[in-house]
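[recover] target loaded
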């Protein structure tokens, strides 16, 4: 039985150097107790911590690692790129290659701008939407998380939901006065707001499959309805596919549901684990982006060859039809088996998922929005999280995050996970 002594010592030291000892809040284990494990290496579906403990990993850097940790072709691409120089602040041929690759599965994206994070992609897309329409207001859904741009830290999901920080301090009211919040999966609420603020709304941004209050698919007709009513009101529709892109379907939610947004934001998978983001869509809108148009947006490391090559290698591998389908069927099997174990232990649990991402909500309510997601028993989640860690499975330390699968999550990894879950439930409720 390994200890976590070295992780604990490193965390104590980190807390004297960085706020909360972490580089991103959710990693601090605040919602689940205990102190985070410090990871030294990953290979395929597995990671190892500084104390030598090994885990099947479902965090996968919160989504980017569609082909698992340290895939040899991704590593080779990164090594080859870095050996020629890590960044030039100049054009390189791989930027267009990445855009072409994205367009093979998201063909309605006419133009794409590469940036360095999902937050940056969303910030830029909103600025562009406001410029293009000449309007200021935006609509977002309660529980959707679109990164930490000021105007979106309003009833956000992910770390904000976990930490119970619906509106972060430091965000001036003047910044959020133009942010209108509606419940996810409630089309009539959107129509009401569109009428109430007719002529004032630039865009609605939505996670087409919510991932930051846990995974919540759209109810039948929701996305089609959003497309119809935003078009009727001449409001742009932005799909934030930073998480869902290449995961709920090779072509993201827009391909899975056949609904074309005006703009799409991307991140995570297109960088294969290196910092990246992107926003794109209709050519007439994207033509407003500098230097072609007046909307300014820039980035020192945008399009750098190392991140772009890591993304290209990841998409080349991960979008292979058989590989992707195999991962999706492993995911469906895991979801089914987890649900049957919960039933066996009479633990109320909802499993929501699509493609290669899912969540287990410890509640007996069907989870369709933030209100129902927040009925989950987060204390029970914490107990199960810590037991899973003990039994060698690394989950995101929050009820409101997703389990991510990779092409490397084979039958052995799934079997290990199911045994761990059975023991964890036995410990928690047995
Ligand atoms: P980043 O700025 O973290 O690259 O992306 C922000 C973002 C935007 N849109 C969606 C739909 C997202 O899921 C995210 C980031 N996701 C979280 C995971 N829930 C990142 C994890 C973290 O904050 O540490």
């Amino acid at each position: 039985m390994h200890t976590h002594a070295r992780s604990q010592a490193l965390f104590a030291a980190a807390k004297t150097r960085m706020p909360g000892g972490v580089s991103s809040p959710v990693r601090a284990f605040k919602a689940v107790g205990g102190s985070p494990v410090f990871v030294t290496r990953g290979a395929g579906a597995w990671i190892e911590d500084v104390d030598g403990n090994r885990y099947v990993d479902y965090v996968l850097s919160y989504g980017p690692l569609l082909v698992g940790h340290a895939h040899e072709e991704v590593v080779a691409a990164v090594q080859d790129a870095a050996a020629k120089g890590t960044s030039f602040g100049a054009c390189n041929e791989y930027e267009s290659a990445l855009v072409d690759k994205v367009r093979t599965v998201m063909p309605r994206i006419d133009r794409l701008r590469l940036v360095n994070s999902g937050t940056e992609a969303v910030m830029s897309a909103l600025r562009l939407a406001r410029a293009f329409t000449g309007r200021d207001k935006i609509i977002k859904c309660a529980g959707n998380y679109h990164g930490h741009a000021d105007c979106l830290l309003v009833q956000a999901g992910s770390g904000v939901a976990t930490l119970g920080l619906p509106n972060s301090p430091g965000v001036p009211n003047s910044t959020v006065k133009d942010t209108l919040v509606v419940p996810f999966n409630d089309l009539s609420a959107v129509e009401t707001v569109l009428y109430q603020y007719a002529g004032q709304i630039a865009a609605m941004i939505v996670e087409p499959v919510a991932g930051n209050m846990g995974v919540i698919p759209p109810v039948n007709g929701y996305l089609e309805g959003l497309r119809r009513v935003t078009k009727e009101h001449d409001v742009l529709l932005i799909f934030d596919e930073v998480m869902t892109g290449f995961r709920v379907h090779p072509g993201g939610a827009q391909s899975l549901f056949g609904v074309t947004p005006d703009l799409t934001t991307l991140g995570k998978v297109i960088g294969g684990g290196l910092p990246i983001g992107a926003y794109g869509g209709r050519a007439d809108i994207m033509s407003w982006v500098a230097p072609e148009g007046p909307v300014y947006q820039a980035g020192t490391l945008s399009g750098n060859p190392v991140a772009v090559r890591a993304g290209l290698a990841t998409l080349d591998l991960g979008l292979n039809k058989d590989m992707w389908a195999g991962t999706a069927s492993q995911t469906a099997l895991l979801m089914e088996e987890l649900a049957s174990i919960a039933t066996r232990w009479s633990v109320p649990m909802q499993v929501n998922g699509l493609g290669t991402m899912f969540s287990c909500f410890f509640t007996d309510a069907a989870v369709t929005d933030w209100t129902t997601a927040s009925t989950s028993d987060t204390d029970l989640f914490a107990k199960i999280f810590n037991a899973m860690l003990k039994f060698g499975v690394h989950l995101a330390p929050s009820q409101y995050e997703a389990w991510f699968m990779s092409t490397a999550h084979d039958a052995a990894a799934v079997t290990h996970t199911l045994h761990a879950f059975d023991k964890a439930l036995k410990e928690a409720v047995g």
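[recover] notes: The chain has a mean pLDDT of 96.
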